[in-house]
Amino acid sequence: MQPDANLAEAHVDSAGTVTLSGYPMPSVQARLQATGLHAAYGDIRVLHGLDFVVAKGGITALLGANGAGKTTTLRAVCNMVRTQGEIRLDDVRIDGKLTEDIVRLGVAHVPDGRGTFLELTVEENLRLGAYTRHDKDVAGDTDRMFGYFPKLKERFRQQAGTLSGGEQQMLAIARALLLRPKLLLLDEPSFGLAPLIVKEIFAIMQRINAEEGVSILLVEQNASLALQISDRAYLLETGRIVFSGPSAEIRRDESIRRSYLGY
Amino acid sequence: MDGFIHQILSGIATGGIYASVALALVMIYQATHHINFAQGEMATFSTYIALTLIQAGLSYWVAFVLTFIISFVLGVLVERIFMRPMARAPELSSVGVFVGLLLIFSSISGWIFGYTIKTFPTPFDTGKPMLGGFLSGHELGSTVVTLAVLLSVYMFFRFTRLGLAMRAAAYNPVSSRLVGVRVSWMLALGWGLAAGIGAIAGCMVAPIVFLDPNMMAGILLYAFAGALLGGITNPLGAVLGGFAVGVIENIGGAYIVGTELKLTMALVIIVAVLVIKPSGLLGRTVQSRV
């Protein structure tokens, strides 16, 4: 089945190759908007001018193969790599700010490898999550995290390095949410986890998105799963967005799935 | 037997000094993976400041607290001015800066305060022997001060928000930034705290070894031996190692090698630890599952 020509926009470039740019996205209020985003590690350029929007209150997925630049995109949002272009969080420009200042504006990032403080206890990891907060609701928020992730309560006093991979992922998400973020960046939450645990975590992520009102930018290799829980998706290939659209449309589009997503 | 007990107790007393300096070394090592060779000279400089304040007529404890604060600020400034620009520099450049700082602080101490050996006052009653004659008043007093300092440092790191942030920044700077910790300031605070602890150690040891610009050179060596013995990645280990080295040094000096060769014991300990168990007795082993 070919993508519906009425919906998908096709461009023919000078070399005669057809590139699909995607299905039209419904217009939304943007929580995060990146325009012409470039990023590089030293001399090696990884992102070549991305434009994308993370909808307020929604889950946006960033899909693509290994090395496509997904992780780099998240790092670029937090200014952890050399970056060019414009990034706005609720109309406030955050590009060029220090990572810790971007975090303080409400961007929580669960990085590649989860970023757990392995030497510290679960309790200390969670306390660090609320490090920037001075309000009195931290205890209440921590209890709510135990509602999502009961395992963390059992492991409260344990050294975080002794947790299983799934538990560490839960800890990382809880730690990020304790910041009370406007935007949550998740880098491959399914990485290295058993399928059942991945299902569990993705289900909780949907709940969190609904109940906490936090917008999520999700980077995933497991495209099928990511398209199920997200409402918008961008497809990344070697540092460029090659396709974008509502997740439901992309899921229905067999040729896109076959050629880019491998399922 | 009495002599032996005396040697052990006074070993613990000097061990406390080594433990403080070892802790100062470990604090900076944990955050930067560098040994601050200038730690001793910075402490000596602080001790001179304390002496100047006391000679200016301040009471001992007021001078003591002021010295701690001045040293803290000095430590923060050294980090900001000299170490910060070296953050991305190769290892050897940092070592060069440390050696440079050592020479600078040593020379400034000599230049401002002179190279003649000075006596330093003790706030403790030295007249009557304590603990049944096994310890002098100063030895007992300085041990109490050292233990109080170590305990407060422990409480600070264990229970305060700032202490937790400083530990986090040392373990995992990237993740720390992602929870909003200003990592580079944590590093500067660590330097300040290390300089303050060094200053206290300097004030406690100066009445025993007398004050001159090279006062802390040997002590830094013992402290380094203690830190290595206990495990340079473990603050508690470094503290215990410091105490152990104090006792070993005293006993060895009294019964085995004699006082002239005491410093050699520090080198023997350093070499032995590096050969037999490089991570030290309590070196950190992170438990981790994949």
Q: Topology, pairings included?
A:
The complex is a heterodimer of chains A (263) and B (290).
Chain A: E1 9-12, E2 18-22, E3 30-41, E4 44-55, E5 59-64, H1 70-77, E6 82-89, E7 92-93, H2 99-104, E8 107-110, H3 122-129, H4 138-148, H5 150-154, H6 165-177, E9 183-187, H7 195-212, E10 215-220, H8 223-229, E11 232-237, E12 240-246, H9 247-252, H10 254-261
Parallel strand pairs in A: 5-10, 5-11, 8-9, 9-10
Antiparallel strand pairs in A: 1-2, 3-4, 3-6, 6-7, 11-12
Chain B: H1 2-32, H2 39-55, H3 60-83, H4 91-113, H5 137-159, H6 161-171, H7 173-178, H8 183-209, H9 215-230, H10 235-256, H11 262-276
Helix pairs in contact in B: 1-5, 1-8, 1-9, 1-10, 2-3, 2-4, 2-8, 2-9, 3-8, 5-6, 5-8, 6-8, 9-10, 9-11, 10-11
Low-confidence stretches of chain B: none
Low-confidence stretches of chain A: 1-7, 11-18
Share in helix of chain A = 25-40%
Largest sheet of chain A: 6 strands, mixed
CATH class of chain A: Alpha Beta
CATH-defined topology of chain B? ABC transporter involved in vitamin B12 uptake, BtuC
Strand portion of chain A: 25-35%
By secondary-structure content and strand pairing, the structural class of chain B works out as mainly alpha
Question: How much of the residues of chain B is beta strand, in percent?
Answer: under 5%
CATH architecture of chain B: Orthogonal Bundle
How many strands appear in the DSSP assignment of chain B?
0
Overall 3D shape of chain A:
globular
Distance between the termini of chain B: 54 Å
The portion of residues assigned to helices of chain B is over 70%
Q: What is the C-level CATH assignment of chain B?
A: Mainly Alpha
Helix-strand pattern of chain B, N to C? HHHHHHHHHHH
Label the CATH architecture of chain A.
Answer: 3-Layer(aba) Sandwich
